[in-house]
Structure formats: C-alpha cells, structure tokens
Amino acid sequence: MEVICGSMFSGKTEELIRRLRRAEMAGQNVEIFKPKLDTRYSEEDVVSHNRNKIPSTAVETPDEILLLGSNCDVVGIDEAQFFDESIVEVANQLANSGVRVVIAGLDMDFMGRPFGPMPFLMATAEYVTKVHAICKRTGNLANYSMRTSTSKDLVELGETESYEAVSRRVFVDEFLEVRKLKG
Prior knowledge:
With 183 residues, the chain is an alpha/beta fold. Helix content is 30%, strand content 26%.
C-alpha cells in the first residue's frame, strides 16, 4: 500500500495519476476510484488541478471499491479523506490479497487536524509520500490547506476561491490567531 498525502495544490493527484499511468504502461490491470461527492472537475474522471485526468469510477462507499477492484493488479483511490473509516479495512484487504493500492488524500483538514481515515492509512502503508505546495506569501513549503471562505463545515469542495496552501507561519498567524480571538 502506498499513500500520497499533503495539502491542497501540492500535486497529490498528479502523483497518483503518474503512478497509475506507469502501471498501465507496464500492462497491469488498473482501476481508479474516487468518492461520488467529488464532482469539482468531473463526475467520472479523477482530475488534477493542472487538468490532467484519468478515467475513474465514482463510488458511494469503500465496499464498492472492494467489489470492483479485487481482480485488479493496481487500485488507485483519490480523495481518500472523504471516505469513512471503512476505507482502511478495504485498502488493507486489497493489499493483503496482493493488489497494489495507491491512495491520495489530504493529511490535514482546514483546521490543521488529521483528516478522517488518512492517519490510519498512512500508518498501515508500506510507503508514504508527503508532497508540498509552495506558500505564495512566504515562498516556503506549504503543508496547510487554509480555508479562505467563512464555512465551518468539515467538507467544503473548492479550489483557489475557498482554499490557499500556506506555510506553518502563515497558518499560525492567520488561522489559529483568528480562532483564538473568536473563542
């Protein structure tokens, strides 16, 4: 099992697509899955912010991945943070049966907390790759997805209109300090 994690705009989906395309070039049977709720760019394809895309199957639950991916050589899963905790068992079952599982997802939510099942996936994976965006304010590595909209919902689909990838310093100064003032 391989996990690709990081903030928004860090290249997680680009790296997932790259790995899956290489598996396809090697003649392996590859299936890609994403949560049905992720319709930002396409209802059918996994699409990166750079508009690279690969055909996928949108699913409601991780159990569907187990059913549809069990006869594959490689299973890709994008936006894993949006699945419930059962994705951990599904990914491990597939990996235990000899399927190479490549998973991409946000490691932290907009409040800087571990996001959904991602910590458990990272803990059970053989390989974890953390990718980083660049903070446009400081030029440093950005590993936080700071929400710029006012929504308090844990899940808010969006792009640059709702999120900014920022460094720790910017996140602490702007997001955490504002939260302290508001109580």
